[in-house]
Every structure is written in C-alpha cells, then in structure tokens.
C-alpha cells in the first residue's frame, strides 16, 4: 500500500497498485469502528463489490483495497455509489501512470 497510489474522501480511502494479471482484484476493510453491527458492515461491502464489478473491465491489472470511513455507515446508497465512481475514475487516471 505504500508503493501504490492513495485516494481519500469522507467515505472511503482507496489504495491501488498495478499487478501482472489480466484482471483486477479487490480487498475490503470495514472495521467495527466504522459500523458496530455486522449488517451495516456487510451493506457497505455489498455496495463496494457491486461498484467494483460494474467498473471491473476498466480496473483490469490493478489491485485495489477499499477502506470505509465512519461516515459511510450513515450515507445513502446513491452517495456511496457516487463516491466510489469518483474513486474509480481517479484511479484509472492516476494509478495507470505508475
């Protein structure tokens, strides 16, 4: 995570680094500090996974780790989706250069 690029906002911190594969991989970190209940943590993870799947062809060749911030628990699904879409666009622009 130190060698790749990092992008943050109020909802998520996203780390990305190039891999030597033809497909992208995702890692998720949603701690109990973010959401105490497992239901809330799993809801956040579902939104992240679905967003990653919809952008997977553009994120091919990257390893991505998404860490949720506490504000993600109270956010509505459209806000989560918009935040993640911005992250994917910035990753595609910035991290491909590395």
Q: What is the number of beta strands?
A: 4
Give the amount of beta strand, in percent: 15-25%
User: Which consecutive residue ranges, at least 5 long each, have pLDDT under 50?
Assistant: none
> Taking all residues together, what is the mean pLDDT?
92
The CATH topology label is Ribosomal Protein S5, domain 2
Tally the structural domains.
1
Lateral arrangement of strands in the main beta sheet: 1-2-4-3
Tell me which CATH architecture applies here: 2-Layer Sandwich
Number of helices: 3
Helix content: 25-40%
Distance between the termini: 13 Å
Rounded radius of gyration (Å): 13 Å
What structural class should be given to the helix and strand makeup? alpha+beta
What CATH first level would be assigned?
Alpha Beta
What's the overall geometry? globular
Order of helices and strands: EEEHEHH
Largest sheet: 4 strands, mixed
Task: Give an overview in words.
Helix 1 (38-54) packs across helix 3 (77-94). With 98 residues, the chain is of the alpha+beta class. Strand 1 (5-8) and strand 2 form a beta hairpin. The mean pLDDT is 92. Strands 1-2-4-3 form a four-stranded mixed sheet, with helices on one face. The protein has a single domain (5-94), classed as Ribosomal Protein S5, domain 2. The protein has three helices and four strands.
Q: Outline of this structure?
A:
It contains 3 helices and 4 strands; from the N terminus they run E-E-E-H-E-H-H.
What's the topology here?
Layout: E1 5-8, E2 12-18, E3 25-29, H1 38-54, E4 62-68, H2 71-74, H3 77-94
Parallel strand pairs: 3-4
Antiparallel strand pairs: 1-2, 2-4
